[in-house]
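Suppose you are handed only two things: the residues of a chain and a line of SMILES describing magnesium ion. What would the bound structure be? This form records exactly that question and the answer produced for it, so the two can be stored side by side and reused later without any lookup.

QUESTION INPUTS
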Amino acid sequence: MTQRGERAAGAIVGSAVGDALGAPFEFGPEGAFSVRFPEPGAGGEMCGGGGWDPGEATDDTQMAVLVADSLLERGALELPDVFARFVRWAAADPKDIGLQTEVVLTSGDPWNLAAALHFQTHHRAAGNGALMRAAPAAVHFAGHGRTASLDAARRIAALTHGDRAAWEGSAILHDLVRVALDGGDPVAPAVVADALAQVPEPFHERWAAVLAPDWHPGLATEFNGAVWPCLGSAVWAVRTTGGFEAALRAAVDLGGDTDTVAAVTGTLAGAAYGLAAVPGRWTAALHVPMPGSPGRVLRLADLVALSARLTGD
Ligand SMILES: [Mg+2]
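ANSWER OUTPUT
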């Protein structure tokens, strides 16, 4: 595997690992993970609970796989096809689905209107539900150049999230992953500032706050199910630790929307450190059942193969 391929696989597997690691701790208190697993590296962390089997990935990874499937089968970004896959998945009764995502996908409205109509009625549409599924598209479009990557990020986010703030979150994450795949440090202050510079007004200020080099999750003004503190926390977790495992522990320890914060952290940390940095005792149990595709369960090798096809490696 090339270094670039190793980092791409790190992003995709890292995201799924974070999702599965965080799922049992969703809506739990701060520090719950460290209380249960005080010693890093001791094992048993992929523990399951809260309705999840050990290593079972949730809607975050399932939706990411749907995006990957569409890109690979259609050979291009076909938004109606991605949306149709989301709708079929939502109708297959997944164990979990984001509140906002569910309303949009079960509305019966067409792909290019459903999220916008939801935003018009509900006004709150800046959840982290597009960010959580960004890894495959981020990896795929990284090779297509910056403009194409930012554009794809925004358009895929817009399928379920009417608030442009959520689109910009996906765009920033795509940009950081692109830098990481090229061998750069995705959380270096200059890199984060450069990604931030791609965010248009009037969205810039709020993103600048959570991506400031001295920001930490204690400064969050919303629950981390919102897009800003979710990405801010992921960047913080990678910036303030020295490796994949430590970053993921820090993310899950934040409590709240732990599966998604850890999935986004895993995307970034995996892209930065590569697949080899993802603990084998975490990937061993990892599995992604796909509602709507009876019997289909992706494991480590399937995710690595998916990554190779997405990057053309
Ligand atoms: Mg989830």
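WHAT STANDS OUT: The domain at 3-311 is CATH 1.10.4080.10 (ADP-ribosylglycohydrolase fold). The two ends are 8 Å apart (CA to CA).
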